[in-house]
Amino acid sequence: MGLTIRPLALAVIRRGDALLVFEGRDDVKGETYYRPLGGGVEFGESSKDALKREFGEELGAEIEVGKRLGVLENVFTWRGTAGHEIAFLYEAAFVDPSFYERDEMKIIDEPATAYWIDVAGFRDGSKILYPEGLIGLLSPERGPGSR
């Protein structure tokens, strides 16, 4: 595949003070990290449409995409390989409220699971959130899944 810049669309979905993220692991760095769900933007597709498609593919879920929180550039090394992403970050919400009741969600076709993780752990540095800079885009108010 050559070196390319990958455009991503990621959803910031909140349940109270928690953020929906998947847990990843980089064994080369010895690092466990978290990232919001979403995925690559395909040629000719808007970033909002990519987000809706990815949630259908990954969770079988329909989402409403809200305002764009920002765009972050992420140049990184993952498992010893260089990467470069441009991530469009959007506020989003599940159309089906039952998704907010699930404590974990298996991602279809991936050996990964999504969890609700309290934002405080990302703010205090005890947990790693990617892409870098995302924590600065998160407002402190509670999301649609608030109780």
Q: How would you explain this protein's 3D organization?
A:
By secondary structure, the chain is mainly beta. The protein is 15% helix and 46% strand. The longest helix is centred in the middle third of the chain and has 13 residues. The mean pLDDT is 90.
Q: From the helix content, strand content and strand pairing, which structural class follows?
A: mainly beta
Largest sheet: 6 strands, mixed
Task: Calculate the mean pLDDT score and round it.
Answer: 90
Strand content: over 45%
Tally of alpha and pi helices = 3
Q: Which descriptor suits the 3D outline?
A: globular
| Backbone CA Rg | 15 Å
Specify the helix fraction band. Answer: 10-25%
Succession of helices and strands: EEEEEHEEEEHEH
User: Which stretches of 5+ consecutive residues score pLDDT under 50?
Assistant: none
Pick out its properties.
147 residues; 3 helices; 46% strand; 10 strands; 4-stranded mixed β-sheet; 6-stranded mixed β-sheet; mainly beta; single chain
